[in-house]
Amino acid sequence: MDAGRLRLGKTDFALRQRDDLIKEVVAIMQTGREFKQVFSPFHRGPLVSSILHDADCYNGNYVMVGEAGIGYTNDPLVWQLSDNQPFGNVPVIGCRFGEDDRNEIVCVAVDTQHRIAVSRDFGRTWSEPFDAGPQYDFSCLDYYNRTFTILCHGGQVLRLVWVDGEFFVEEQADSPTITEHLTTIRGGNGLWLAVGNNGRVRTSVNASHFVPKTSGTNLDLFSMTHGNGEFLIGAAGGNVFRTVDGETLTLCPKPFESNADIIATRFIGTLFFVTNRNGELAVGDGDQWNVQDCPLKGHPMRAISGDGNSFTVGDDLGNIAVSTSVKLNIGGDCRCKTTLVGLGVKISGSADGNANVKLLKLENGIPQPTGGTVQNVVMVRAADKNAVDLAELVGKARIDNPMNEVIIV
After folding, report:
1. Residue of 309 and 272 predicted with greater confidence
2. Phi-psi label, residue 299: left if phi above 0, alpha if psi -120 to 50, beta otherwise
3. Can you give the pLDDT at residue 265?
4. Which domains does the chain have, with CATH numbers?
5. Residue 117 burial (CB < 10 Å; 0-12/13-18/19+)?
6. Which helix (H) or strand (E) is 301 found in, with range?
7. Quick check: bond before 402 cis, omega within 30?
8. How large is the greatest C-alpha to C-alpha distance in the chain, in angstroms?
9. pTM of the predicted model, to two decimals?
């Protein structure tokens, strides 16, 4: 009988198998093959700056910001500019979703000067901008622990304090000299971590008092993200570091062959996404990396966002590319419900139809059930390793004995 159908990209694989033998299905997408460049309302031609600086996503709603203003969508394939542009023609460099003091979802955006705007309808419309004052020059925005935090070029760290749905700005208690020459700030593991030039690292438990740390490197640190219980930091020379608390920075394998600076890092779903100044994109877990064949390759990509089922990237020309997840349709008697599989995850079916998601990694070329990610593999593994007639597939397949795995490559 037909135990179900696997769909990877545009190729269908019909599976014929006794339902009591199929125990787990692994679907790994080679994201480069699934990328699609879509119409971008930000692209203004080669003679006008169209750099996309940042992006964020909440529950399938996306916001992206750049030199041409703010755009939004709830379908990554179709983007449009917001109904009003709160900053006029001034470039927008940061956006983040979060909650205000009334537990309402808001999106905050900041421009390259010292203004802040808020959207309560997922980026479609925006409030009149709040001017924090000419003494501030915004460079980075983040949201963590119910706190929006803004890093300034002058070293100041600002927090938005909400009262009945309205906010005011509060500056850190420390002198800006402690936090000067920093490039980015991110929250995670119960603290805020800020990094910058010459390996500068600062930590704080309240985004107000910051403690200098010895990083062990003098490389410039350009970007940072938090996920899987650790911070991943993009640095000069194509280097990437990881740390749990900012006390010790551990050098990771390089994502790319080139030494171009890592300018953007983002954690989406279960994986880290990194880009460099050469316009290359890689996905991995920090130990293993897969370079993606993105249609925006060759142009720096700074705006990265996603929700695990799909993600978007925006480049310095204002172009946008989208990658969606593999759709895995399993029906019949194989006991695994129809589901949408995110990037680099394993779906293990159980008798009640539930699924557990785990990462994979390669050991000696063989996928293992924990760790990193494998590209372009769909695997059906049977419980009975002595079964002879495992599956009948349409497509190119290889059977690896004695594990009795059918791998479509």
Report:
1. 272
2. beta
3. 98
4. 2-29+326-408 (no CATH), 32-323 (2.130.10.10)
5. buried
6. strand 301-306
7. yes
8. 74
9. 0.75
